Amino acid sequence: MSVLPYTMLVVAVGVERVVELVVSRRHAAWALARGGREFGRGHYPAMVAIHTGLLVGCVAEVWLADRPFLPVLGWSMLALVAASQALRWWCVATLGPRWNTLVIVVPGLPLVDRGPYRWLRHPNYVAVVVEGIALPLVHTAWVTALLFTLANAAVLAVRIRVENAALAQAAA
How far is the CA of 71 from the CAs of 75, 76, 78, 130, in angstroms? Predict the structure, then answer.
């Protein structure tokens, strides 16, 4: 895969993120209209910055550091990118209007225990972690993969703590 198709892949992932934000806004309106309460807004700007940095870093590192495409690594990482997208949208479909990029909980609704939530409490974050490693490594952007993984781990530690506390409070 040459640099241009890789850049187009990263742009496509960026477009997918914009679609997520549109879906998230619609879902936020749904949740707030039903008495939903938002939790932990403070970490959200950092999360957005880190995810934007992932996309910019992927392209910048490949173009500026002249990272090669290594077929065995690249194609296997592309398969993981596709799998992470499938998992992400399975989470969105399973949660329906309860899925959001923000932490908004509607009181009185039971926890979802179907779809990927049968096996994992936070499957969407598995998709984020896998994609954050795999997308840069499609074209050997290992510095971006490493920096995103470290920054994302810090944000996810906060995010998961906020989400778990919000869900526990809503269930009480």
Answer: 6, 8, 10, 19
Total domains in the chain come to: 1
Q: Which two tokens stand for residue 24?
A: 């998230």
Element (H, E) at 103: strand 103-105
What pLDDT shows up at residue 172?
62
Cα 28 → chain centroid: 17
State the pTM of this model. 0.91
* pLDDT band at 1; cut points 50, 70, 90: confident
Query: Which residues constitute the domain of residue 153?
Result: 3-171
The pLDDT score that the predictor gives to residue 81 is 98
∠ Cα 46 50 55 (to 5°): 150
- Tokens 């999360």 map to which residue? 47
Output the domain CATH number for residue 160. 1.20.120.1630
* Per-residue model confidence (pLDDT) at position 62: 97
- Nearest 5°: phi and psi at 2? -80, 175
